[in-house]
């Protein structure tokens, strides 16, 4: 009995391995349809809007480092943060709009998914549930990214962790900055 179960399991493993080996590469036309149906470009721009708090935080951190300050104290500095944040957003938006960006994304999809997987995904996205989940996945990803960024910032603001990180950083770069 155990031998039969083992044989069946080995057979199933071989079949699944063979399916992945013989999977049809994703066709460019299918990938383009998938990107269009998934509203990928709209999602990118929406994600930029939803990442505004993170961009604001990044802009503030950049300005704090440049000014060598712990805290921004003037209205002019706060306005500079808003301008820097907008610059970061505009720069990202321009990168997204480049044709080579979309081509690179298409290539990533084509290298990652088989034609069968693309077709299954297209079928899913054509359902109301698929469209809804597609939209909510962006929100989930953005929220997770913002949360992880917040955790990272908290770690850097924690004196003990910051001190440990600084020690580790200095240990790593010490051989690079020793006098000749």
> Which H/E pattern describes the elements?
HHHHHHHHH
Helical coverage, percent range: over 70%
Separation of the first and last Cα atoms: 72 Å
The tally of beta strands, per DSSP, is 0
Round the Cα radius of gyration to an integer and report it: 24 Å
Characterize the main sheet: none
Please give the domain count. 1
* Continuous helix count: 9
- Tell me the quaternary state: single chain
Shape: extended
Strand content: under 5%
Secondary structure class reads: mainly alpha
Low-confidence regions: none
Q: What's the mean pLDDT score?
A: 84
Could you give a quick summary of the protein structure above?
By secondary structure, the chain is an all-alpha fold. It contains 9 helices and no strands. The chain has one domain (23-155).
């Amino acid at each position: 009995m155990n031998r039969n179960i083992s044989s069946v399991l080995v057979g199933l493993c071989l079949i699944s391995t063979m399916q992945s080996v013989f999977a049809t590469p994703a066709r460019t036309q299918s990938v383009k349809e998938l990107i269009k149906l998934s509203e990928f470009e709209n999602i990118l721009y929406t994600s930029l809007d939803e990442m505004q708090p993170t961009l604001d935080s990044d802009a503030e951190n950049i300005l704090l480092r440049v000014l060598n300050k712990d805290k921004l104290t003037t209205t002019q500095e706060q306005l500079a943060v808003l301008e820097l944040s907008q610059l970061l957003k505009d720069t990202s938006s321009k990168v997204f709009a480049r044709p080579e960006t979309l081509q690179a994304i298409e290539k990533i999809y084509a290298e990652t998914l088989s034609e069968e997987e693309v077709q299954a995904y297209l079928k899913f996205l054509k359902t109301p549930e698929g469209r809804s989940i597609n939209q909510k996945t962006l929100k989930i990803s953005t929220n997770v990214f913002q949360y992880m960024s917040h955790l990272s910032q908290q770690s850097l603001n924690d004196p003990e962790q910051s001190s440990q990180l600084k020690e580790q950083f200095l240990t790593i770069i010490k051989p690079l900055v020793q006098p000749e």
